[in-house]
Amino acid sequence: MDPVGIAAGAGPGAAWQGKCPWGAPNTTSMSCSLADVMSEQLAKELQLEEENAAFPEVVAVAEGPFITGENSDTSSDLMLAQMLQMEFDREYDAQLRREEKKINGDSKVSISFENYRKVHPYDSDSSEDEVDWQDTRHDPYRADKPTTTPRRGFIGKGKDITTKHDEVVCGRKNTARMENFAPEFQVGDGIGMDLKLSNQVFNALKQHAYSEERRSARLHEKKEHSTAEKAVDPKTRLLLYKMVNAGTLETITGCISTGKESVVFHAYGGTSAIEDKVIPAECAIKVFKTTLNEFKNRDKYIKDDYRFKDRFSKLNPRKIIRMWAEKEMHNLTRMQHAGIPCPEVVILKKHVLVMSFIGQDQVPAPKLKDVTLSSEDMKNAYYQVLNMMQQLYKECNLVHADLSEYNMLWHDGKVWLIDVSQSVEPTHPHGLEFLFRDCKNVSQFFQKGGVAEALNERELFNAVSGLNITADNEVDFQEEIEALEKRNEDHVQNHGKKQSMFSSNGDPPIYDE
């Protein structure tokens, strides 16, 4: 056989035998001495080789002052302390960043602990040319505030001396002081414009800012604590809600009338908790306005009324308005017992008075001044009013004090009296004056309406009051009325008692000792 062919045929088998995976690997033993095994440096090198083999990607250490190896001088205690402090500062800053991220989250408004960080100049991410002005305490686009004058009152020397009374310095200080005004007062960027305000202008602006602040406070209080036209304040809404919730009222439909001192709403009645009391199907809710503007000139109707005189001086102005509603309730009750056509009182809650509704299907009865009556109806209405005035004076012991065609309704062929909150007794210091004014209003209205039988104001006064005051003119008539009132008031001051009724025989009043 050819030795060359045999050698070629045996070649692959020999190569296969050398690369057999089941073959024992050829390991070369490394000889080392006991001193090398015990060497600490050799152990570190072996450990580093194992780490490099397990983690081939080595994270580069940030360049900085922490240089390990031969370049670091660890023999100096000061250098070691500085390095440890820098490492502590880095950890502290990282903790602050984590706290910021945890607190802010996805909020649009974020907080920053920038002022609490301990960042060194070489540790800054930005270059020296790039500065984030939001992270600095000084804003280059914001004008500097004027410097304060030292205690001695001047700065500089010689010709360059500047006192605290300098016009430019005072002007800039006044501009800076405007920032202390209320937030609602827009002052603009006066410092950035280098605006210089004189003392006179600054004082005027300061006074105006304080006035506007007090005015806004008053408006806010008025909005919260007062009843506006065709609206009610939160406390009144709560009272109305409680009435509906208790079943006294079924529903409140809306406003039907507004006046100087009250707002009237229409409501459907519900069921009463009291068995004997029946609530009308339709009710009128009279809400007295809690503003005091309309009552400044009307306190004389209540403070001189002996029924409320002892309580008047002890209450604050807002509680007087509740007393005003209470007074109307008592007056309506008297009229109802006398049989005078008037609203029936349902319930009173503070300054909210619920009465029966004069009208039908949410349509209030028209006032006497708005209705067109025939001559017969006008004559009938006049005698009804005359009879009601006499009943009101003699049986109810009251004077309406604001009787006119505006406070009389025409419903079902009858005249109804409303708005008796200001009504007083005849023994009131001005009771007879109020009666004469009522007689004058009634007489003029019906005389203009074509009622030939209508008496003039003096005859109507004597017919209602039963007093026989004879005078040729109106001036003398009023003087005699004032004399009667003065005599009655003197008696009250001397004896402390009031006469219940005036005499009807024309003689001076007989006082009840």
UniProtKB/TrEMBL annotation:
SMART domains: RIO (SM00090). It is found in: Cytoplasm. It holds the Pfam family RIO1. PROSITE patterns: RIO1. GO terms for molecular function: ATP binding; metal ion binding; protein serine/threonine kinase activity. It comes from the Eukaryota. Signal peptide: none annotated. Residues 120-158, 489-513 are annotated as: Disordered. One of its GO terms (cellular component) is cytoplasm. It is an enzyme of class 2 (transferase). Keywords: Antiviral defense, ATP-binding, Cytoplasm, Immunity, Innate immunity, Kinase, Magnesium, Metal-binding, Nucleotide-binding, Phosphoprotein, Ribosome biogenesis, Serine/threonine-protein kinase, Transferase. It catalyses: L-threonyl-[protein] + ATP = O-phospho-L-threonyl-[protein] + ADP + H(+); L-seryl-[protein] + ATP = O-phospho-L-seryl-[protein] + ADP + H(+). Residues 221-466 form the RIO kinase domain. Its EC number is 2.7.11.1. Interacts with CASP10. Interacts with IRF3; RIOK3 probably mediates the interaction of TBK1 with IRF3. Associated with 40S pre-ribosomal particles. This is Serine/threonine-protein kinase RIO3. It comes from Centropus unirufus. The lineage of its organism: Eukaryota, Metazoa, Chordata, Craniata, Vertebrata. The gene is Riok3.
